[in-house]
C-alpha cells in the first residue's frame, strides 16, 4: 500500500479517544486535513471530555457504528485494539478505503519532518514534553505528538498531547510495546532506558537496536545497564550521578525538597517543579537532545524552570487534612517503584494504591512487580491494590491483583488487597495520618482520573 501524506484529505480514526490516536488526529487537523473518528467509549459514554475537546478542534466524532464513514473518507486509521469485526472496518472494505495502523501513519508524519523520537520503556511522555517545552522556549516552534497531555496545553482547553508548530522540528513519543518504534527514521533518536515491559529483554534489545540503526543521530542513557550497550558515541550520551562513565552530559547534585527537584548539568543549575530522581534523568535526556538542535544549556534551564508537567504523572491533586494526594500513570514495575520513591522525600509514610491493567501483562510481570515494589517500600510504607482492570476482549483471567499482594507480603512488606476500588477509601483511611502521601497509580482505565479526584474530594 503506497500512501502519501500530502494526498490524505479526509482521514477517519477508529478509536480516536485513545491517547496515541487522538494525538495524531489533532495533529492532522492542525495541518489542514478534515479529520473525523469514532470510539467505543463514545457508545458507552465513558470518554470524559475528550469528545468535546476533539470537536472543539474541528474533529467530527461518531459512535462506533460505521455512520461516520462517507464516500469522502479517503483513509481509515485503526488502533492496534481494533478487530476486523468492527463495523467501520467492514464498511471500509466494502467501500475500498485503505486501512492503516496508527504507527504506520505516525511513521509517514515523522518522515515528513526533522523528527526527534523519544524511546525507552519508562519516561517517554515526560521527556517528550520537557523537550518540546525547551525547543518552544528557545523559539524553534516545534510540533509534538505524545502519549500524554501537557498541562500547559490542557490549560488552553486541549487534550494536550499534540500541537502543530511552525518549524520542521517534530518531537514524538516512540512506542516499543507494539514494535512501532522500528518504523521511524528520525533525525535524532533518544533512548532513555530498557527494562522488561510488554516483552522480554532480549526481544526489546533487538527492537531498540533497530531504532538505533534507523536514527541519523543517536543518544542513549549511560546510567541504564541495558541502553548503554547500544551507545554509538559516548560524547553524545547522558548519565546521572553514580558511576561517572564519561558521558557528554552528566547530571549531578540531585536534591528534592517537597515536590521540587534541583541538580546541575555541566555546571548549569536546573530547578524543576516535579519530584523524583527519575525526573532528573528525564530532564537531562531532554536537555541532551535539545543541545543537538543548537539550544544552549542556560536556555534549557530557563525553559524547564517553567515546566508544568503532564497529565497524571506525579500530578499533585492537593493536600487535605494534612495528607497529600498524588495521581500517577505508573503501570509497570519500574514506574511504580519510581513513583513511590518520588513521594518518599515528601512524607514520613507513603500509602500507595495500584490498579494493574490486563491479565496477560500482570501475569508476565508478576515477579517483577513484587521485586520492584518491595524494594521501593520503606518499612513504614504500604501498598494497596484493587482487582485488575479488564478492558474487554478475549483473555484468560488466571491471575488476581491479590496474588501480587501476597507476593509482596511474603517479602515482608505492608501489602493489602481491596477487591472493589470503590471500597478503598473506607479501608485505607485508618492507615493515613497527617503528613502522609496517598499515591494512586494505574493506567489504561479512562475512569482513573475521576476516581482519583473523587478520593481526594471525599478524604
From TrEMBL:
Q: Which SUPFAM superfamilies match?
A: MurCD N-terminal domain, MurD-like peptide ligases, catalytic domain, MurD-like peptide ligases, peptide-binding domain
Domain spans labelled Mur ligase C-terminal: 312-444
Question: Which InterPro entries did the record assign?
Answer: Mur-like_cat_sf, Mur_ligase_C, Mur_ligase_C_dom_sf, Mur_ligase_cen, Mur_ligase_N, MurCDEF_pg_biosynth
Question: Which organism does this sequence originate in?
Answer: Niabella yanshanensis
Residue ranges of domain Mur ligase central in the record = 118-290
Question: Per its UniProt record, what Pfam families does this chain match?
Answer: Mur_ligase, Mur_ligase_C, Mur_ligase_M
User: Which keywords annotate this record?
Assistant: ATP-binding, Cell cycle, Cell division, Cell shape, Cell wall biogenesis/degradation, Ligase, Nucleotide-binding, Peptidoglycan synthesis
Q: Where are the transmembrane segments?
A: none
Q: Where does the Mur ligase N-terminal catalytic domain start and stop, copy by copy?
A: 13-113
State the protein's name. Mur ligase domain-containing protein
* Molecular-function GO terms, alphabetical: ligase activity
Amino acid at each position: 500500500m503506497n500512501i502519501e501524506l500530502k494526498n490524505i484529505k479526509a482521514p477517519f480514526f477508529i478509536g480516536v479517544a485513545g491517547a496515541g490516536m487522538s494525538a495524531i488526529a489533532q495533529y492532522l487537523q492542525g495541518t489542514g486535513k478534515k479529520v473525523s473518528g469514532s470510539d467505543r467509549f463514545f457508545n458507552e459514554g465513558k470518554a470524559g471530555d475528550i469528545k468535546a475537546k476533539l470537536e472543539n478542534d474541528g474533529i467530527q466524532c461518531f459512535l462506533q457504528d460505521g455512520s461516520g464513514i462517507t464516500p469522502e473518507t479517503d483513509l481509515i486509521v485503526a488502533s492496534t485494539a481494533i478487530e476486523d469485526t468492527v463495523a467501520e472496518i467492514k464498511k471500509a472494505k466494502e467501500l475500498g478505503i485503505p486501512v492503516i495502523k496508527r504507527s504506520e501513519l505516525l511513521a509517514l508524519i515523522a518522515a515528513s519532518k526533522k523528527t526527534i523520537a523519544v524511546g525507552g520503556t519508562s519516561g517517554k511522555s515526560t521527556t517528550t514534553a520537557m523537550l518540546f517545552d525547551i525547543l518552544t522556549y528557545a523559539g524553534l516552534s516545534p510540533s509534538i505528538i505524545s502519549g500524554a497531555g501537557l498541562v500547559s496545553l490542557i490549560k488552553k482547553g486541549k487534550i494536550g498531547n499534540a500541537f502543530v508548530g511552525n518549524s520542521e522540528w517534530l518531537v514524538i513519543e516512540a512506542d516499543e510495546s507494539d514494535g512501532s518504534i522500528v518504523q521511524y527514521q528520525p533525525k535524532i533518536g533518544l533512548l532513555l532506558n530498557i527494562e522488561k515491559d510488554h516483552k522480554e529483554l532480549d526481544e526489546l534489545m533487538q527492537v531498540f537496536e533497530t531504532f538505533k540503526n534507523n536514527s541519523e543521530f543517536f543518544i542513549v542513557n549511560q546510567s541504564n545497564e541495558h541502553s548503554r550497550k547500544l551507545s554509538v558515541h559516548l560524547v553524545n550520551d547522558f548519565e546521572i550521578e553514580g558511576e561517572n562513565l564519561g558521558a557528554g552530559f552528566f547530571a549531578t547534585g540531585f536534591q528534592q525538597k517537597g515536590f521540587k527537584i534541583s541538580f546541575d548539568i555541566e555546571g548549569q543549575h536546573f530547578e524543576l517543579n516535579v519530584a523524583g530522581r527519575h525526573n532528573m534523568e528525564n530532564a537531562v535526556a531532554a536537555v541532551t537532545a535539545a543541545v543537538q538542535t543548537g539550544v544552549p544549556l542556560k536556555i534549557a534551564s530557563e525553559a524547564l524552570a517553567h515546566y508544568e508537567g503532564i497529565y497524571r504523572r506525579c500530578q499533585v491533586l492537593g493536600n487535605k487534612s494534612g495528607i497529600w494526594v498524588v495521581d500517577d500513570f505508573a503501570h509497570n514495575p519500574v514506574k511504580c517503584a519510581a513513583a513511590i520513591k518520588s513521594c518518599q522525600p515528601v512524607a514520613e509514610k507513603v500509602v500507595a494504591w495500584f490498579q494493574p491493567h490486563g491479565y496477560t501483562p500482570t501475569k508476565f510481570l508478576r515477579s517483577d512487580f513484587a521485586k520492584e515494589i518491595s524494594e521501593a517500600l520503606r518499612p513504614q510504607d504500604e501498598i494497596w491494590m484493587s482487582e485488575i482492570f479488564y478492558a474487554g476482549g478475549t483473555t484468560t483471567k488466571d491471575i488476581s491483583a491479590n496474588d501480587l499482594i501476597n507476593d509482596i507480603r511474603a517479602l515482608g512488606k505492608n501489602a493489602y488487597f481491596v477487591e472493589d476500588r470503590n471500597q478503598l477509601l473506607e479501608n485505607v483511611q485508618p492507615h493515613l495520618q497527617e503528613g502522609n502521601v496517598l499515591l494512586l497509580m494505574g493506567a489504561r482505565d479512562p475512569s482513573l482520573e475521576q476516581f482519583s479526584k473523587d478520593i481526594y474530594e471525599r478524604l
